[in-house]
Amino acid sequence: MEKLTAKLALLTASFLFFGASSLSATQHGGSPPIQPGGRSAGMLGGKAGEPFNLNSFSAKDIENSIQADQKGILDWIKPNEPAKPAAAKEWTVMVFMNAKNDLANSALFGLSGKWAVKDLAEMKKVGTTDKVNVVVEYGTAGKGAKRMLVGKSSLFSSGETVYSQDPNADMGDYKRVIEFAKWAKTNFPAKKYMFVLWNHGLGWIDPNLQQHSAGTGTNGNKGILFDDETKNYVRTKQLGDILRASGYMDVFVMNACLMQMAEVNYEVKDNTGLIVASEETMLAYGFDYEKLLNFMNAEPGATDERISDFFINWQKQFFSEGAPIGPIHMPLSSIAATMSTVKPQALNELPRYLNAFAGAAMANNETGAVKIAIEKAVRFSSLDPKKDKKKMLAPYVDLYDFARITGENAASQATKQAAEELMGFIKSRLVLRSVGLNADAENGYDYTKAGGIAITMTMKIKNPPPQLADIYETKYSDLSLSQASQWDEFTAWTDKVWQSQ
Question: Are 86 and 103 in contact (CB under 8 A)?
Fold first, then answer.
């Protein structure tokens, strides 16, 4: 138990691996937090000496504070602003690229890596055009951050027009993300906006491990947009604050692990038109930004369906061709992967379907069906991926697959019907496009059965250690989806069902 508890402190969702291969590649995962209350309350207008409490502030408070605050996060943005806003283009692509962690470094024995450099170089092969602006906030380990308009690089140009630099940038501060997005919209307006968060991710879990060292890989824990140097990161509910204060984003992309979750998406649903992410861990190669920008320039009027097709087809092609390692391509047939796009507006209806399904299962005491689903439904990365091959500590399942297995094994017609209706909603109205690739042979999970959106479910471990609860800074019951639905009550019920075996 002591070894398990110690390992839980690592909570690793980004790790070096290449499946059965002897080579390994860093994934887009995440890292641990600052201590609660460690930020100055004055940044959002709180009284002196009071601890910072995000829940006491509205999105309007956050937006007003960003406009009014003349110190701290805004101090570094002064001399090199654009003379005047540019004329509106078709798209502005904003990438908040936080590489103040292991994603700035090489992996694969130096054959490939420096992942942020790679993705930035891909952007510079296309750069800003007459149709598409490419604006990046680029933070890297040991160098702080710089804000720039990305152009096409050449022998005579680096492809970077730098507007500001901050050697002490906290890339884990959600207020910096908001300010960057507002700055980009003001100075590089467009008809549509794509907003990309680039870093590690851990789904909805906000780790609370003040007693442990920070870091990434095997040295620490993950949270989206983790900054190894400041020990800060963006919490799940802060994602909602980011989009509320930044304004509507036509496409919201999370180039990070495990973020295509019902709980995460429900926080941002009202301020974006399309969510692009993965239910599973993502290889550190990230997206191919050259192909993405070429696509957007070729089809500036692309619909959500066409944008979705691009991301899904890219994922299929990448895994079909294999990961480039110098002059060769590493086969990826042993790596399970997902990619999907979600329609945020449909999330408003999700609680009704979850409640009907969960309510039927509990009312009809479907203990047998639920136990089978807990055991068999497709699960995503473990909290301890290197040692927990059986995914006993994997808290996320594919919602469609869980409903399918429960329905197929349910004793009551009411539960079967509710499962079918939930599955139909996911396939026809919630998930626009989805792909699952390969299989988890260790556990018999067929990823082609994944439906495109994950959700929290009872872990397979029996009698989980009580210390496990201490890793959560955010309580599951405090998430917006938990407050809008009965899924948190359902998981409490499934916990008891599972432990009663």
Answer: no
Rounded to whole angstroms, the Cα distance separating 195 from 272 reads 10
Name the pTM for this structure: 0.84
DSSP strand E in 69-213: where? 89-99, 106-107, 112-113, 132-140, 144-150, 160-166, 190-198
Helices (H), 385-449: 399-409, 413-425
Question: For residue 354, which of 412, 296, 400, 307 has the smallest C-alpha distance?
Answer: 400
| Measured distance CA(35)–CA(231) in Å, rounded | 9
How far apart, in whole angstroms, are the C-alpha atoms of residue 3 and residue 476? 26
Return the exposure string of 98-120: e unless at least 16 CB atoms fall within 10 Å of the residue's CB, then b.
bbbbbbbbebbeeebbbbbbbbb
Q: Which two tokens stand for residue 240?
A: 């909602």
C-alpha R_g of the chain: 22
Instruction: Please state whether beta strands 337-342 and 431-437 pair in parallel, antiparallel, or not at all (unpaired).
Output: antiparallel
Contacts of 106 by beta carbon, 8 Å cutoff, 6+ apart: 112, 113, 114
CA quadruple 51, 55, 58, 64: dihedral sign = positive
Per-residue pLDDT band for 391 (boundaries 50, 70, 90) equals: very high
Highest mean pLDDT among 24-38, 69-83, 442-456: 442-456
pLDDT band, very low/low/confident/very high, at 460 (cuts 50, 70, 90): very high
> In the chain, where are the structural domains located?
11-37+57-341, 346-499
With beta carbons less than 8 A apart as the criterion, state whether 163 and 123 touch. no
